[in-house]
Amino acid sequence: MNRGGFEALDPCVHCGFCLPACPTYLATGDESDSPRGRILLMRALELGELPPTDPAVREHIDACLGCRGCEPVCPAGVGYGRGLEAARELLVRANGLAWSARAVLGVFRREAWWRPILTASRWLRNTGLPRALAGQGRVGFAMGMLDASRKDRRTGSTVRTGRPVAAVRPSSPSVALFRGCVMDTLFRHIHDATRRTLEVNGYRVVDVAGQACCGALHDHAGRRDTARELVARNAAALAESADYVVVNSAGCGALLKDAAHFDSSAAGSALADRVKDVSELLAMTGPVRGAPLPIDVAYDAPCHLEHAQGVTAAPLAMLAAIPELSVRRLPGSDKCCGSAGIYGLLNPVMARAVLDDKIRAIAAAAPRPQLVVTGNPGCLMQIGAGLTAARLPIGVAHPEELLDESYARAEMN
Ligand code: SF4
Ligand code: SF4
Predict the structure, then answer these.
(1) What does the mean pLDDT of the chain come to?
(2) How far apart are CA 233 and CA 262, in angstroms?
(3) Which ligand lies nearest the alpha carbon of 39?
(4) CB of 38 closer than 6 A to ligand 2?
(5) pLDDT per position as a tens digit, 239-251
(6) What spacing in Å lies between the alpha carbon of 181 and ligand 2's midpoint?
(7) What is the pTM of this model?
(8) Taking phi first (over 0 means left), then psi (-120 to 50 degrees means alpha), and beta for anything else, what does residue 409 get?
(9) Residue of 362, 361, 353, 255 lying closest to 304 (CA atoms)
(10) For residue 38, how far is its CA from the centre of ligand 2 (angstroms)?
């Protein structure tokens, strides 16, 4: 019998080891907001003991961030994320989605819609207006998120020589850059940095047309059908494109590594087998050391890199290639920041409560870091907006930006 993913919850023995790892449980102290409590609700949902229209079921399943922080700490190997996906699909089928979620997911389904909207957002960001308006309140926070997508001045001060990169040869391993939607518009500077750092490390980066949004937003919101459609488009576009498909957004990477789950054709598994986070590819080569960058940074692990992909050491190995860069992990750096796709739109109060814990840990650090570094666009925007709202003069950056700046300085010498 096909149980749609609920079977992944079967190993749960209700030990409760996962409770301290769950940001929503830590925020409310309510067992129903914990992984163990939600597993009971999801099982009752599957067995029909509770209807999908039950308000309590909806409230507590909706409040889950989908961060999967409960998975690595579980001694029984419960596949919480798979179960959550099945439960969300069931709830959405029965109750539908809020209009705001439908609107956002509809936009990200079609490039003809998301590209002009995000390009206009980038123009707005570049006027400096969001920076002036960033702060508290819903509008101030939204402006802070947009402003946090710009390049931090500490990672982009060096003009490049434009010399060709000697490490790239026709026989070099080829890498197709997964472009995504938000990354290809608001964070294009990170794509540029990714290309350059891969080339310095001997990879040949190829452009592949016809890609779509990865579908992670849709999958997390219970629209598995749309996620399947988008994965199939990406699997077709990226088929036989390169030795690897490199991703610099943790959320997209987690979804694409799981492509075989969404697309059962040979193209789905061929895509899943070739996907690597950029830090994994760079860690495989060393990576090449750059010039000194004397900045004090706090590394914050994106949930979908650390928990969903199990990539923990590679980003730190990458940053270790930068002489004089001081890198720390602060308490709670493995916990969700509250971004979680469109979670902040649907659950703004919980999203802020979860973020506030992280901002408090950063504010309490002695000495305070100059930058918070994390490899996911949603986390960069959420943490950046939180730091601005708390009036902390700390920037945010992607690890790729730091390595790229370090290489640019080495190029000048
Ligand atoms: S999910 Fe894992 S850690 Fe949590 S209660 Fe179940 S068995 Fe224990
Ligand atoms: S996915 Fe995250 S928020 Fe949801 S139960 Fe697990 S740890 Fe808690």
Answers:
(1) 94
(2) 11
(3) 1
(4) yes
(5) 988 999 999 999 9
(6) 25
(7) 0.94
(8) alpha
(9) 255
(10) 9
